[in-house]
Amino acid sequence: MSTITNVTIDKAANIYFEGDVTSRSVTLEDGTHLTLGIMMPGEYEFNTQDAEKMEVTSGQLFVLLPEQTSWQEISGGQTFYVPSNSRFKVKVRTITDYCCSYLS
User: What letter would DSSP give residue 36?
Assistant: First the structure.
């Protein structure tokens, strides 16, 4: 989906890695939470509580998912999934725009 309607957006940004990764929290009309964000080029490691669906809307990155040994290339228009209670790494090659949906 390219647009989201009837939402509540937190004005305060979530800021990580000295500002190289930022996002805004969004609550949908049905109470579902997601974040919309930007990652600058660099290497980052994230922790999850809930399972996540990561939609890359533009840009390019490589992701190393839990229990995997090979990096997977992800470009704009592609999606990857991260299991709950895990860690994953990304190598962001170009400024990357993303939408993270929490799957609980």
Answer: E
